[in-house]
Amino acid sequence: MVPCRPETKRKYGCQRSVFTATVHNGTRTGIFTVVSTIQAFERSAVINGATAFDNGVCLGGALHYDAGKTSLSTMGSAPTVAALSGLTSQTGDLLAFLQAWAIGSAFVAVYDDSDHVRYANDGFLRAFNVKLGEVATFESIILGSFRNTTGVRIDAQDPISFIADAQLRRRPSPSMPRQRSFPVDFMDGSWFWCTETLLPNGWIVLIGSDITSLKQTERELAAARDSALTLSQVDELTGVANRRFTLSKLGGMLKSVGSEMTHLSVALLDLDHFKTINDTFGHETGDIVLRHFAKHCVSSVRAADVVGRLGGEEFAILLPGITSGKAKVVLDRILATIPPVTVKDCQPATIALAFSAGVAEAYFNDRPEEVLARADKALYAAKHAGRNRVEVSHEEWPLDRSPDSV
């Protein structure tokens, strides 16, 4: 909009005004109340985005007023975007309500039944890169955003399909008025919560409220939740499952033994002579050894298996779906392939690692403490036999724990 010339502004003013005038719109003429920002000149005034109503029907977009005639005429044949400023009353409270929508932080737009944008406030024009007075439709706005990578974010490779899908949600049935709400994100990082109302006459009213700060808070809360969840499940030093999470996973797996899961083996591992490593090379080197060993275990088992640190140098490995005999094969391979740890200190040294392990197979209706106790006995047997080895529990399957006995 061209600003008023200083001399004209002094004479006529440049302000938002409410007045009554005759509006010509092709075949329709009538007396209507119009409110708009008037751009005053000597003999005429361009009324930017004035709106006029005839029983709720829009009569046009940008209007032109000639001081020599007492009339208003619509400019252009296609419906153009008009300012959200139409009134059917000159009461102050209604004007205040309208002005609040026009300049507020929320964006507001009205689409007609052919999806032309008829009214829009400044917030909508800025958000969707629409100019006052242009011919804009839902489709043209989406295509413009996709083509220019501005405005609303289009998460689709094919904008035409995106528009078709959106229209199914916007206008599910022409004869069925309804309201829906949904979030929309924009290329500038802002987010709006939109409420879209489909009216009985096919027009759509769209209102969007800025929720960018809420989204930021939501992301921060999600990150904090994920961090807290990780801390509750992961051993901070080694990065494998901590004691609580390992025992929780064991409890869940035991419920499936005898039904979905045919077998479950549990292994307890203890690093041999770890206290000597700590005393000789220091606790910092001891931590390096623990991380090194945990990483080796994880890389040596399946994705479905669980490696956990129970405390100190004691680890557990849960192996669902395999017998204790096959679990021993896995543990023997882990033991045989542990790479040494090289200490880069003032006196470089290479530390060879070994562990003792006990393996037990879970029974039907086993409790976590029971299968762990059997694995612990097997671990003690491995240490008693000279360490650096894997032993398997050979306790008989109790008759009352057989699935056939239930």
CATH superfamily of the largest domain: Reverse transcriptase/Diguanylate cyclase domain
Percent helix: 25-40%
Shape: elongated
CATH class of the largest domain, named Alpha Beta
Annotation field: number of helices: 11
* Biggest sheet: strand arrangement: 8-10-9-13-12-11
DSSP strand content: 25-35%
CATH architecture label name of the largest domain: 2-Layer Sandwich
Q: How would you sum up the major sheet?
A: 6 strands, mixed
**Quaternary status of these chains?**
single chain
- CA(first)-CA(last) distance: 85 Å
Instruction: Let me know the number of strands.
Output: 20
- Computed CA radius of gyration, to the nearest angstrom: 37 Å
SS-derived structural category: alpha+beta
Q: What are the segments in which pLDDT stays under 50 over at least 5 consecutive residues?
A: 1-77, 84-89
How many independent structural domains? Answer: 2
Mean pLDDT: 78
Find the CATH topology of the largest domain.
Alpha-Beta Plaits
Question: Can you describe this structure in just a few lines?
Answer:
The protein contains 11 helices and 20 strands.
